[in-house]
Amino acid sequence: MRIDLTLRDIPVTEVAAAARRAEALGFDGIGVTETSGSPFVQAALVADTTSTARVATAIALALPRTPMDLAYAAWELQALSDGRFALGLGSQVRAHVERRFGAAWERPAARMREQVLALRAIFASWQEGTALDFRGEFWSHTLMPPNFRPAPQPHGRPPVLLAAVRERMLEVAGEVADGFLGHSLQTAGTLREITLPALERGLERGGRTREELEITAALFVATSDEEWEESRRRVAFYGSTPGYRQILDHHGLGALHERLHALSTSGGWSEMPALVDDDVVALFVVRAEDPAAAAAEIRARVGGIADRVAFVGERPDLERWAAVASALRGL
């Protein structure tokens, strides 16, 4: 099992230093997010300052961008990282796609599926020097003159990873993606009872085997009281979002979602964490003051399913997280 670190909400001026430190501490991969800045700028900084860790967008928003936009960015990051880049894509939720980015949300799962297929066609055209002829329902790419064609990659095309929560998008990930990126608002129960069956349905639809899909499980990790409380805030934030309601419903927490959502729509953000008690936090967060105990809990949650684990948190203590990662490798 490989262990990644997802850098969240770090100022762009600090990304390179955090990435260097994470690689030196032994993390196998470093993911960057699209929250308040560009994931591609951050990924370039990570690629330029590291030499062994995988570099991934975890995630970049797909729907506001065309496949060609994504392809050019991913191709250059694959070259900059000497073949260590993975293009992680996600849909985000409707409000952000439509109201923040001004893009179309209609049929997001079908659009995501087509984007992956379009990316494959574009990458193949660049790598193999063939004519570009992709004609889909949402996008068509049929023009690639020599002056606009990047050079082939010595390490091959970058893998495309899809993030998903709902079952239809999970099935798309299983059908067409090289890898699946799990959301941190996930429990051992939802991973086994919702996520994995949907991925398997997608694999079957695509005529693929489980070995053809890399699965990454994201986990909130808290090594201190401060990180535990920050995780409580994240659980409250995600739990207020209708797109993630099924996760809470699975544990009989639909009423909690309704209360959180009501506060989020009325501007009561500061009141939301108090509604999430420690038992709910513990569903989603691994408490990790003791690295060995934390490693055992992580193994119990995702062992036998995940090929990679991504530790997620806000401005973490990297040394303590690295101790958990080391203990996990030793199991």
TrEMBL record:
InterPro entries: F420-G6PD/mer, Lucif-like_OxRdtase_MSMEG_2256, Luciferase-like_dom, Luciferase-like_sf. Residues 11-306 form the Luciferase-like domain. The keyword RNA-binding does not apply. Gene3D superfamilies: Luciferase-like domain. CDD domains: Tetrahydromethanopterin_reductase. Signal peptide: none annotated. Keywords: Oxidoreductase. One of its GO terms (molecular function) is oxidoreductase activity. Its EC number is 1.-.-.-. It holds the Pfam family Bac_luciferase. This is TIGR03617 family F420-dependent LLM class oxidoreductase. It comes from Paraconexibacter antarcticus. The lineage of its organism: Bacteria, Bacillati, Actinomycetota, Thermoleophilia, Solirubrobacterales.
